[in-house]
Fold this protein.
Amino acid sequence: MIETAVIGVGGFGKNHARVLNELEALSVVCDIDGSRARAYGRKYHVPYVTAVEDLRKFDIEAATIVTPTFTHYEVALKLLEMGVRYILVEKPFTATLKEAYELIRKAEEYGAKLMVGFIERFNQAIEVVEKIINDGEIGKPILYYFTRVSRWPERIQDVGVLRDTAIHDIDLSNYLIDEYPEEVYATMGKLQHHKHEDFVNILMKYPEDRTVIIEANWLTPKKTRKMRVTCTDGVVEANLLTQEITIIKRDELSSPNLDWQEPLLKELLYFLNCAERGIEPKPGGREAVMALEIAELVVKSSREGKTVVINK
Ligand SMILES: NC(=O)c1ccc[n+]([C@@H]2O[C@H](COP(=O)([O-])OP(=O)(O)OC[C@H]3O[C@@H](n4cnc5c(N)ncnc54)[C@H](O)[C@@H]3O)[C@@H](O)[C@H]2O)c1
């Protein structure tokens, strides 16, 4: 297996460590919080370090960056400099677009491959929806409606709901439609939190009259992650948490029987497989930049209170 380090074993990074351990690929954990680093090093019987620079002592081929977003760029640069060939950078990739462009340039310079943690692409529910649409079972898609709402996740301090949460659905829209939007309109703001926006509502027009609506907030008590695709001959609904699917065709309603699969396991297995075979992982830097560019247009539209038209 590929020798892999997990950097940041906090709220989400501990899941990376667990899954990589299950896949027998976990070589070392790193966290600036010494007690966390030690706890997960001990738990999985691997060495631990408290500074990225100390990973030099290990012959790691791959790493996953699960530190707060504002640190991703700096951590990734250090890994590139020490010769790590495959780096999975958690979403939203970097804190700014400038850093994203620069990181991609640096990775090319070092001959390394980057992947971005848009985990929903590995959600079985999305794979099933994609197949139903591509098979033409319910006709041509007209509207993609995403709902991603919850209470405020206290541990996220460095970005707002747009880059932390709605970014998943921006990426899913780009992925499922496989185009760049032509127009973006959004409302966004802070209702209960001081530093960052806690709600965003996005409406995007894609070529061939396909519309995307994304509703994301940190205000709603019940955690919901759902999507609904309305097509010319039916509707498909997916619960991204439970992976339940409902297909509605005229008077007929059906639900395929699916056993829940862990998206992170599929994502990390794919990442390791790319590293083993020396291939370019997807979603990579290009997909990350596309989502971050759209996030900037969302901010622009909400600030100006008008639709942003994109000339690509
Ligand atoms: N793909 C997903 O669905 C998903 C889900 C949750 C979080 N995330 C992403 O994962 C990242 C981490 O989120 P989290 O909720 O786990 O945050 P967290 O604050 O719970 O954990 C971050 C950890 O990184 C450590 N850390 C901070 N700076 C470091 C550095 N320079 N070097 C080493 N360790 C460092 C902290 O001590 C902490 O243990 C964020 O970018 C977030 O967007 C992705």
